[in-house]
Write a structure and sequence with these properties.
The structure holds 2 protein chains of 2 kinds.
Chain A: H1 8-19, E1 35-39, E2 45-50, E3 53-64, E4 75-82, H2 97-110, E5 122-124, E6 128-140, H3 145-159, E7 161-162, E8 165-168, E9 171-174, E10 183-184, E11 192-199, E12 204-207, H4 211-216, E13 219-225, E14 231-237, H5 244-278, H6 284-287, E15 295-298, E16 301-302, H7 308-318, E17 330-332, H8 353-370, E18 374-376, H9 395-398
Parallel strand pairs in A: 4-6
Antiparallel strand pairs in A: 1-2, 2-3, 3-6, 5-6, 7-10, 8-9, 11-12, 11-13, 13-14, 17-18
Chain B: E1 11-12, E2 15-19, E3 27-33, E4 36-46, E5 59-65, H1 73-89, E6 99-108, H2 113-128, E7 136-144, E8 149-151, H3 155-159, E9 161-170, E10 176-183, H4 187-215
Parallel strand pairs in B: 5-6
Antiparallel strand pairs in B: 2-3, 3-4, 4-6, 7-8, 7-9, 9-10
Classes of the chains: A alpha+beta, B alpha+beta.
Chain lengths: 402, 220
Amino acid sequence: MKETPLSACERTFLLKAVEEKKRLDGRQTYDYRNIRITFGTDYGCCTVSLGKTRVLAQVSCELVPPKDSRPTEGIVFFNLELSPMASPAFQPNRQSELLVTLNRQLERCLRNSKCIDTESLCVVSGEKVWQIRVDVHVLNHDGNLMDAASIAAISALSHFRRPDVAIQGRDITIFSPEERDPVALSIYHMPICVSFAFFQQGTYLLVDPCEKEEQVTDGLLVIAMNKHREICSIQSSGGIMLLKDQVLRCSKIASVKVSEITDLINKALENDKRVRKEGGRFGFAESMPKERITALKRDEAPVEMTGVQEMAEEFLSKGEAAPEVVSSPVIVATGTGQLGEGVQSTWGLEEEDECQGEMDKEEKKKKKAEKDEVMVISDSEEEEVVVLNPEAPKSKGKRPKH
Amino acid sequence: MDQIETGSGSVLREYGSEQNLLSKPDGSATFLQGDTSVLAGVYGPAEVKVNKEIYDRATLEVVVQPKVGMSSVRERAREQCVRETCEAVLLSTLHPRSSLTLILQVVHDDGSLLSCCLNAACMALMDAGLPMGRLFCGVTCAIDSDSQIITDPTAQQERESRALMTFAIDSKERNVLMSSTKGSFSVKELQQCIALSQKASEKIFQFYRDSVKRRYSKIL
């Protein structure tokens, strides 16, 4: 499916609006859209809505042998997928440039910044380490996928709990969540990406561009930072030339935004922790907005069982009778062949010459008897071989043994 | 084996749905059954690739995306079940040489996943406004080791069951549009499960009606 192209008048309108410091949805130049973070029932599942952009992240773990070059470190694996739901332009299983850029940026932001302590993921050095897998699915594309993906990934990683392990000598015991409480990952800091869109060769900039703004942008600058004002990664794409003080200004804006977003993530994590501890309801079912007109919920409802037996009896009586179940398949004899055990081969194998004549006679007799007789084929080797011509007992000996 | 006790195990878990929650797809819906949650998005009728076009009807494509890992044969099997159900109800001859794409994202799997996918698909198709001859819903039944039928089983109940069946029931005459079964059971048990699913589907169809009434209550 093709994406609807942006018309020329929309493009001029957007560029003019940026020049006048106005945005389509009424935001200020440095404003972020509303961020909503919800967690699911199992640990490590998180949905982030950045305005209308929606992203789902899931963290899972597995015990694997470590990499040869790093035998004492765990492995963290990132996989971002652009679901075809997010935009008509996204096709399933297609490597587009956007996908590669997003994946690479996510890896650089989270892996190269060493925000996760991989040494603590080691169980038995050189043999078994935890592999943490982060799957990020983009569900709706309304611009700024990078920021939403990084917020979702770091929130999911902070929310995730891996199973507890105990090592006694060479034996590893992995406890299920019922036996021992799962353990959180050791995360040093939370790097979050902030995107800046540049227009008119770097003259104007916007923070958190929406999809339409992204389509008219000249270049994009993504700064990954944590709340301690440490820059984890910078990426500039689009080929625009930026001045030093522009980049410095962007990093100052980014530090303000990152501290706000980190507070938001921590608040969401605290809320979730509190609800789980108090034994309340948690998960996506609870976080579904009830007051919306497009949403509806129903409580547990018993299914009426009256009349089910009668209905079933009716179906059975109305339907055809099932064919009889026979323990071994039966084939009406004439004209049919059978492959397999228990039947004498009629391929005219070379037998001893004395028996040749007798064999021919037997075959003729067999053919006569076979006309209306039912031949039972047995799969079992222990069952007695059926003798078709009871008046020629010699035939038993002549049967080739299978 | 023949007599099934249909006792207190037959409840439909708490269910809910939200429509029109994504801005890009033409129709979207999420359906929750207990903790199982599926998000569905529909695009269509839209342009179709020449190698996939059918001259007199729309081409329906279904994609099921698992939460972790790459999609495998299991997802393909689910896609086929959902696609066959949808093709039976959609009036695809109204849109020849077009494509209808239905994408299902598994948000959480706690049992009865296929029926949750079917319900989410139906709500998303309704939200997209695609013409359908009738609505459909999915109901899952499990037969446990004591020969009790459990409707809408959780993942735990599914694991302990002897047989697991999912039926797609249509809204006009409560016929079975699609069935997917796993495990061993007798013909009588099958008929009882179908009868039970038909009874359970009444609740779900009533829920569809209530959702649509609520949604358009301000307009009508």
